Amino acid sequence: MARPGGSAVRARAGPHSQLPQAGCRRLSGWFELGRLGRPYGVRGWLHAQSFVEPPERLLDFPAWRLTDSGGEALERRLIEGRRHGGGLVVRLEGVATPEEAMSLGGRAIEVRREELPPAGPREHYLADLVGLEVRNQAGARLGRVDHFVDTPANAVMVVKGEREYWVPAVPRHLLAVERSEGRIVVDWPEDF
Fold it and tell me: pTM, whole model, 2 decimals?
C-alpha cells in the first residue's frame, strides 16, 4: 500500500485513494474523518473512531464540525486527544461533563477540505472521486461513483448506473483516474 511521505491520511486502498475511507462523505467543503462515540470518564471526554491511518492523525485537525444523522452541525475545537485501547479519546471545547459528552455521541467528525494535505502523484481523496463517470477498458459506461465502502481488504467503489457495480478500489482495477475529464477507467466487465 502506498503511503507516500508517511502521511497518515491515506486510505488503505492503495495509490489511487486517500481519505476518507468509511462513509466517504464530502459535504460542502467538509470531509468526514471519524465519528464520536460514548463518553469517557467524568470530565467530558469522548471516545472517537478515526477513519484515517494511523488513527492519531485525526488529532492533527483542531477545528471539527460535528454533524448528527439529521444534518444538524455544530463546530467545536479539539482541546486534546490520545490513543486509548483500539481507538481514541478526545476532549472538546465546551464539553465538561459526561452528559454534555453524551449529547455529541454518534456525530460525524468533519474537517474543512482546505485543511487536508494535497494528494500525491497518482493519489486522490476517495470523496473527490464521488460523482465521476466510470467506464471500462472497452469504453462501456458503467455509471457514476456513488460512494465507497470500506472492507477489511480494501475500499470498494460503488458505481450506480443501469445496474450497480462494486469495484475494488485497488490499482489492478482502477486503471486511470482522469479528474479533469470527470471519469475513471476500470478493468471491470460490464456483465459482472
Answer: 0.70
Would the pLDDT of 192 be above 80?
A: no
Q: Which residue has the cell 454518534?
A: 106
CA separation (Å) from 134 to 19, 84, 111, 131, 180? 20, 40, 27, 9, 14
- Kindly state the DSSP code that residue 31 receives in the 8-state scheme: E
Residue 140: domain span:
130-186
Mean model confidence pLDDT for the chain: 85
Q: CA 29, 13, 9: angle at the middle one, nearest 5?
A: 45
Domain boundary (115, 141, 159) is at 115
Cα-flanking dihedrals φ and ψ of residue 126, to 5°? -55, -40
pLDDT digits (tens, 9 = 90+) for 68-81: 999 999 999 999 99
Q: Which amino acid is at 183?
A: R
The CATH number for 169's domain is 2.30.30.240
Residues 44 and 84 in one domain: yes
Contact 57, 39 (CB under 8 A): no
12 within domain boundaries: no
Local confidence band at 128 (pLDDT 50, 70, 90 cut-offs): confident
